[in-house]
Every structure is written in C-alpha cells, then in structure tokens.
Records
---
Amino acid sequence: GAGVSQTPSNKVTEKGKYVELRCDPISGHTALYWYRQSLGQGPEFLIYFQGTGAADDSGLPNDRFFAVRPEGSVSTLKIQRTERGDSAMYLCASSLAGPTGELFFGEGSRLTVL
Amino acid sequence: GQQLNQSPQSMFIQEGEDVSMNCTSSSIFNTWLWYKQDPGEGPVLLIALYKAGELTSNGRLTAQFGITRKDSFLNISASIPSDVGIYFCAGVDDKIIFGKGTRLHILP
C-alpha cells in the first residue's frame, strides 16, 4: 500500500517477555519516527531515524527499548523484559525529509502487557 | 523539556457551530502542524504552517502560526459529525513534539 504500515496491529504479551514491533514507511521517505501514545495523551517522541542511523534517540525511556533500521527502510522497535507500564499504542511515522517534514502516521501497534 | 499546552481539553458543541482551539509553548518552533486522530487510527495531518504570522486554510479548517512562534490556533467552521475526534498540535524544532489534544464532541 501507499501508506505507513505497522505490524502487528495488536500484541498481548506477559510481563517479562520480549516484543518486536515493525514499521514499513512510505516508499522514498528517508525519515522514520517512533512515538508512544498512552490513553488520553498525545504521541510521545521515542526515536527518529534519518536513513539507517538513529539521529535522535533521546525519547527512549530506558535501555529496555531499542530500535533499528538496518537498510534505511523498514524499522523494528524492540522492547525487552516488558513491564505493565509499557502498555500503550506505538505509532510509527515517516516523512520525506525530517524533522521539518510533515509526518505521515501508520495506524499503530497496540501493546498490552499483562 | 519542551511542552505544548492545548486548550480546551474537551469541547461539546452543536452541529453547525464554529470551533476554535489553540496551542501554546514556552519554546519557539519553526513549524507548527495540526493533526486529527480518530479512534483506533494514527493521526492524520490537517494543516502545516511554516512561517510566523502565516494563515492557512484547508476547506473548513483555518490555522495560524503565531507571530511570537510560540503559539498556533485552529478554527473549524460549520462543524459536521465527522469532525468528531482528537485534534493535536505539534511543534517542530529539532524534533516534533505533540500536545495532549483537544477532544471534540458534537451533541446530537
């Protein structure tokens, strides 16, 4: 499709497990962003890639969170030893050039940690 | 860190009414973006503002980039049922920061 694609759309896991969330950006978009959105809140910045490299990872809450974009296209957000507080909607967005570019969001991956 | 304050947090209006919401910041931004989010979906870009003082329209939506570069407002004219949702402002500097949203409800 033409838009940003995120999988899975829903993920339920148990506390302590490892989780991977995938984002496939719009073709040709060099910038890719991960945001986390809790209920009733706005999207909270996690990490921004320009090409293959993480240009800004200052939003990652701790070292259990890691993201990669090895070929400058698809990105994977990895969460180790999940905690109940990690439950949220994880949104991916891409832009033609960033961070001044307009963001186009996927539909998100809803993570629930039991 | 940078924070954006959106007001009001919620609005309950009658269909056909005009709507006004705003966003303020303690920091200067180079670009302001306005998004709408429907339940279960990601935010969708409505309007982008790139220059202080800029006034931009998109159909029934009008947004302005404040002269001080620390605020922006969004107006919706003649609201219709599909306008229901959460409206987010976002300020762009070296990263893109979102406000907490204004929830728009339309009374039957």
---
Amino acid sequence: GAGVSQSPRYKVAKRGQDVALRCDPISGHVSLFWYQQALGQGPEFLTYFQNEAQLDKSGLPSDRFFAERPEGSVSTLKIQRTQQEDSAVYLCASSSIGRTNTEAFFGQGTRLTVV
Amino acid sequence: AQRVTQPEKLLSVFKGAPVELKCNYSYSGSPELFWYVQYSRQRLQLLLRHISRESIKGFTADLNKGETSFHLKKPFAQEEDSAMYYCALSPYSGAGSYQLTFGKGTKLSVIP
C-alpha cells in the first residue's frame, strides 16, 4: 500500500468498553511500533514488534493494554475496560529492517475518545 | 530516563525571517536525535536526524552534546513551513526510530 494504514480513524467508546485498534504496516516492514499521543503532548512509546515477536512492551501503561502481531504483518492494539484517561491518538509506525538506523513511517492514527 | 524539552509551544515568525526551534534533551548515554514534522491534516514524518547531517527543506540541526541541545534552524522561513515540529530522541545510537522519546512539540506559524 501507499503507507501505514490505521483503522478506525475515530473511535468513541463508553467507559468500561473494550476496543481494538488495527494497524496495517507497509508491506515487508519488519519493525512495528505503537505510540500514544494525548492532547497537547508528544507521542509516547508503547510497544515494539520485530516480525511477530513483541520485543519491548515497557511503555504499555497498564495490563489493560495488549498488543499482538500474530503473523508479523497486521497488528492490533487492544484496550480492555477503557477509562477516560485512555482518550488519545494511537499512532502506529513501521520500518523496513530491524532496529538499526532506519526511518519509521507513521500512520494517520486512531483518535480514541472514552466517554 | 531520557527527556526531551521543547520550551516553546508556539512560535510565530514572518515570512523570510530566520527560524530557530529549540530542543534540549537529557540522557546519560549517546542518543540519536531527530526532528519530526506534522503538516496540517497529514501524518507525522521524519524531517531530519543528526547522524545524517543533511539539510532538508532548508532546515538544519546540529547536535551540541555540551549543551545537550538539538535546535532546528532555517535562515528564511516560508509559509509552507507552518506545521507542528517534534524533537525526538532514541536511546540507541544508530537504532533508527526505536523507542523514541518525543518532546511536546512546537507549532510554527509563518506569517505572510
């Protein structure tokens, strides 16, 4: 495809509801990253995949957040029992090789609003 | 833990005037520094990285390890430079975009 694709673009969830956010990386990209961007803030790192392996999940804010990439391409970020503080834009990025020295391309993001 | 500080939330300059977007960082090791830009209704994209030592769209940034700064500069601002600019740090030199820490961003507005 033309770039990293995220869906849905917008999601409104009632507090306590579970949500799933999807990321389609650029075809062939090995590395995939998730970031959370709260209003007025810069993006904050959540988790990193290399192919299907989740190598770093140090940024996930709580055990309500879970990410997977079972076949090493599409990734899903799941948030269980959403709370108001989860309202943010969730960004996905992918890059072509392992960690080293390469550019990550960002998706448009999913704006999650928890009411 | 690493931190990136962008002291200006908003910077307004006239077209043709010089631009300097400030970025300071704190990290004990040897990080890699980046500038990202987000134009209106577009996705976040890499503008430049310190290891490349490139000039992109007339912008340059020099890493000053003594002052722990990575300010973004352009001698003559253009209207199309109006955007949100984020300074970012990766704790692993040469690791590309892994585990980036971003500043809060500076909105640059170029006045015609």
---
Amino acid sequence: DIVMTQSPDSLAVSLGERATISCKSSQSVLYSPNNRNYLAWYQQKPGQPPKVLIYWASTRESGVPDRFSGSGSGTDFTLTISSLQAEDVAVYYCQQYYSTPFTFGPGTKVEIK
Amino acid sequence: EVQLVESGGGLVQPGGSLRLSCAASGFTFSSYWMQWVRQAPGKGLMWVSRIKSDGGSISYADSVKGRFTISRDNAKNTLYLQMNSLRAEDTAIYYCARGEQWMSAWGQGTLVTVSS
C-alpha cells in the first residue's frame, strides 16, 4: 500500500497570509505514460463531508477559489493557500489514486492565528 | 444538482450486519464509478471500496475484504454496502462518493456504531 504523510499536523496562519501544506507518498504516484500525478487534495470543514479542491496534483476543481493551488510531482506535493480567508479554516487531506487501496494522508488542520 | 444521500446506519452489536444505501440524483448514476469512504470519530479518512459504473470491477480495503460487499442498482440509482461480521473498529461515518479516482461529490454520511 502507498503510505501518505502530511506536514505539519496543524498550522495557524494570519488572515491574508500564505498557508503551505506538504504531502509525501511512500512511492511515486507519477504515471509516466501520461505524465500525470495521481494525487488529489480535499478540504473538510467541521461537521461536513470532504470536498475536492485539486486533482492531478495541480488541477483546480471547478468553483474552487484560485487562492488554492497544488504543486509537486513524484512523491512530494504541496497545497498552498495564497491568502488565507476565515472560511478556509478546515482540515486538509491529500489522497493518492495511483493504485488501490486508495490512501489518504492523516490531515492538516488549518486555523487562524 | 448532484445529490448523494446515505442511509442505513445505526447501532449494531459486534458480529452483526448492516446494509448501507446511497441514493444518487442530479447526474447519470450509471455512468459513474462510485466509492465508499469512512471516518472514525475524530479521525481521518479511510477508503473502503470502489465499484465500476456497470459493476464489473470492484476493489476493497484489506481491512474489510471478505466482510463487506459493495453493489449497485443502476435502475434505482442506488449504491449499497453490505457489512457483515462488524467489529468495534468499523465504527465510523460512512460516506458514499462519486468518481473513479478522486471523489468529486460526497454525501453527508451515515453513522455506524458497533458496540454491545
């Protein structure tokens, strides 16, 4: 199974400042024939189901604000919130879909400083 | 509007069974792969199972293989998860989600509690 790790476990960022979350996979999720990274990012607010933000490591889901961006390749990925808003308080998860069983990172909790 | 509504959760004793349902609307259900993901209270997300649009391909997490069965009825726009031999560690909110790879839409979830 591919193990996903995230850092930090939590972070507190001032409104308008940048938040950066790291996600690492135990093996590459880059599929060479199509040069795609099989990685998604989700946001989960308290009491709500998760919501996809990013897929293919850097493609923003329709309707997701452009302050959210994803980057990285192979085994190392980053989710960046360029200017944190109050409504971004949530837990963020990365997920690999390169192979089953699909696996999620443990989550990063983002709060307002 | 895409809607996924889970039902069938509840309190069950260890060793018991439950069948979860997920009613889909707002999209062509028969064209989409579907998945189940669970979340233990206060914990992270765990993928459970996936089924192809026509039911022809199915995968499970090792921890539920042999105990859980995913299925679908495309005529009823409904996804199912039959859960047998339930254990305390199966206690979680169970979400159904749309998608073959990433999960593009999620239901609100149904809580399954396994306890004596």
